[in-house]
Amino acid sequence: MKKLTVLCWFVLLFAALSACDSGDNIDEALVGEWLRESTYNWTYIFNEDGTGERGAVEIQTFTWSVIRDDRVLLDFAGFRNQTWYYTIDGPTLNMIHRGNESENINYFRVDHSADVVGIWAWPYDESLQFVFEADGTGTHNFAGYTSSFYWFTARENLIIDHGPHEPNEHWHFAVTDDNLTIDSRQIAGLTRGYTRVN
């Protein structure tokens, strides 16, 4: 009888641990898009339904779930799964690979900063403008030509996406009163200043 009781407890314990590791939990704080620090184009996307994707040019899809509070399990459907330790501190996500702790990577939450939304003109010629819409679309008016783009921010980073046929622009941005300053992360010493006109 004692052996049977011990066996029952063992089965129940195994079932409980299996449920914890099976990945039924979604951490709402993790849901969203995250931009990898220093690359400015490599992202993680964690969806509310437990699906996700990561990468830049080559995109990998996965399903995800949180196990044991501080770990996220990524299931690549046929490929080897990965477990990452993670912490979230405000707009910053830190992920450490469970099997290789040298992979210690920070990501910044992607959004559309309200500070950037608006119409910004070059002070020396107000016909030269950036327009940043709240939905992440925008236009650049330059020398009588208007180009469209998508944009987003991740902490102090501003990324302007011109589509698949042109390289993205990566800027460090700062807004002070009605002035927008952008410093290129691609061309050393390239700085631009704009004034809000709306």
Explain what you see.
By secondary structure, this protein is mainly beta. 11% of the residues lie in helices and 55% in strands. The chain has a 16-stranded antiparallel beta sheet that branches. The termini are far apart.
Can you tell me the CATH architecture of the largest domain? Beta Barrel
- Please give the alpha-carbon distance between the first and last residues: 80 Å
Give the overall silhouette: elongated
**How much helix, percentage-wise, in residues?**
10-25%
**SSE string, helices as H and strands as E:** HEEEEEEEEEEEEEEEE
> Would you identify the regions where 5 or more consecutive residues have pLDDT less than 50?
6-23
Task: List descriptors.
198 residues; mainly beta; Lipocalin; 1 helix; elongated
